[in-house]
Amino acid sequence: MSAEPHISPPQLEVSKPKAHPKSSSLWLDALSRLVKSKTSFIGLCLILLLILTAIFAPVIATYDPTEVQLLDRYQAPSSEHWLGTDELGRDIFSRIVYGSRISIQVGVIAVGISAIVGILLGGIAGYFGRWVDQIIMRIIDILMAFPSILLAIALVAVLGPSLTNAMIAVGIVGVPQFARIVRSTVLSVKETEYIEAARAIGAKSNRILFQHVLPNCTAPIIVQATLGIGTAILDAAGLSFLGLGAQPPAPEWGAMLSDGRAALQTSPWVITFPGIAIFLVVLAFNLFGDGLRDALDPRLKQ
Amino acid sequence: MLKYIIRRLAMLIPVLLGVSILAFSLMQLIPGDPARSMLGEKATESQLMQLREEMGLNDPYIVQYGRFLGSVLQGDLGESIKSKEDISVELLNRLPATIELTMFAMILAIVVGILAGVIAAVKQYSWFDNLSMTGALFGVSLPIFWLGLMMIWLFSVKLGILPASGRLSNDVELNTITNFYLLDSILTGNWVAFKDVFTHLLMPGVALGTIPMAIIARMTRSSMLEVMKQDYIRTANAKGLARHLIVFRHALKNAFLPVLTVIGLQFGLLLGGAVLTETIFSWPGVGRYVYLAVLGRDYPVVQGAILIIAIIFVLVNLITDILYKYFDPRISYN
Fold it and tell me: Which parts pass through the membrane (chain A) (predicted)?
């Protein structure tokens, strides 16, 4: 190739993209950038590990996570109980393994709530504009005036403490993020020519919004969802730590930390390992989410 | 500038009204009968009727809201169901503790975060950059309640060098003037108390400040990298200006704006995180007050506290916007 003249004949220019048809896809491009990033690969591996742990929990766990063995209370980590036992003699390793199911559930459902409500609100506000936009965005402003974890605490306080209500509360406080991202993307997409074309051939508003506008918001939504799962798991663990989320004897990681507080002086392993589990899972989603953002929008990469 | 501030204050009114509606509406979400939910299963019908009457629960929603707003505007947040104490007074007593803790955490986060971010950007891809950015990534993923517990275990239980709870040791005397203990100890020249208050602040401050510190460090680094690429920095380099002057006078000044936005937003995180941190460290502030009220189903306290915290957060954001304009007069908000 180096022997070729600087000004190539036109047909050569045209044949080039054909030689690499894959590079024309946003998603394949993003994927290739994503695999190259070491940190997002670590994140992805940790997420896969979490999912596998949740699926095969009964196989991996060495004990029943809720089985009480009062004679084995506060056992230090050993070959029998790998991560020790808690105040009721329950095996901490098995509880953490089963807790992965709760974490995935919390992360996915809470973010699902945020995403569905946020996409609808943001999409409608951005697409219809004017007073619809004004009303929806003022509501979003008001939601954002409350520190998110505090609003979640207040919501669970009135709804009643339970894992379901904790997921709803964490889901609600995550709505503004999605609504704002989707609105701003919709605002830029709706000015494009193909939307004008769709309108010109007489497509109805809801068809344009759902078929043509929203699919273009997929990339930022996926990034926000990935990062949001980490935050949701962290917030929900905080609620459970305060006794507002998962109720005993559920092996929820935040609740396990709360149970272990009483024995902090004598049995630190009770609080050490559930905390590491929360940390690793949140880290995984942050790493992978950061990687996705860089991969889908190379302009942002530093 | 004054015009701008006045306009911004006027724009606050609808937001604050909305905040009050939301805080008020929270009570309407209580499933079933709020009176029964507050008094418990053992309450008799006459007790329930008395509470409904006292709280005006029999009136229409809009009348209840009007009454609520009227009292809030007069600084009256009602009284606690459990202790019958005046909620406004209780909140005022506890606010200094929370503000002292959040300010301490914020200053820690700003100083360490900006410094780490600047050094990481100036020495991009160095060991310091890698180390501090890995640390920042870990920092945003840490559950602060776990970090707090692990610090208590290490520094209080194992090493015994830091107190695990409270604001002041029992055997230390301090004459309170402002209820900001650090300030009070300076004002009264009481250095024994100053040292004691400081050691009490250290662990909760670090626990609360970790996430903002990590976020500020990452933001400062990326913002600095952006600015350092610009022509005027190259010019400053070319004319032989000292490195530290370029970095701190020329670059950081322009790189600071996005960081300022992040700092404003992080205050919300701190005020929310205070509930978890104060619970762990038995810090006698608003956060712990909210936590105890939630456990005791003392709804008016929860309502009053989140209303006050939201108002503080809204005001902090206003101050951030005003500072933003001050730092960058090019920005107009028409």
Answer: 41-63, 102-128, 140-160, 266-289
Range list of H helices, chain A: 10-19, 26-36, 38-55, 57-60, 92-128, 130-144, 148-159, 163-173, 175-189, 193-200, 205-207, 218-241, 253-260, 269-296
Q: Chain B contacts of A157, Cβ < 8 Å?
A: 293-294, 297, 299, 302
- Positive or negative, the CA dihedral B253, B258, B260, B263 is negative
Alpha carbon of A205: minimum distance to chain B alpha carbons (Å): 30
Query: Could you tell me if residue B27 is inside a domain?
Result: no
Rounded-to-integer distance, Cα B266 and Cα B273, Å: 10
Tell me, yes or no, whether B316 lies in a domain: yes
Q: Looking at the domain assignment, is residue B20 inside a domain? A: no
How would residue A231 be classed by pLDDT, with cut points 50, 70 and 90?
Answer: very high
Query: Which residues in chain A touch residue B29, judged by CB atoms under 8 angstroms apart?
Result: 155, 158-159
A14-28, A91-105, A155-169: lowest mean pLDDT where?
A14-28
B260 is a domain residue:
yes
Instruction: Give the CATH class of A36-62+89-300.
Output: mainly alpha
CATH at residue B173: 1.10.3720.10
pLDDT tens column, A31-41: 777 777 888 88
Chain A nearest-CA distance from B157, in A, is 6
End-to-end CA distance of chain B: 13
pTM of the model: 0.87
B269–A243 C-beta distance less than 8 A: no
ipTM above 0.90, yes or no: no
B128-to-B90, B108, B134, B170 alpha-carbon distances in Å: 46, 19, 10, 42
Q: Which of B16, B36, B98, B141 best tests the A interface by mutation, with the highest count of A CBs <10 A? A: B141
* Full domain range(s) for residue B249: 94-285+312-327
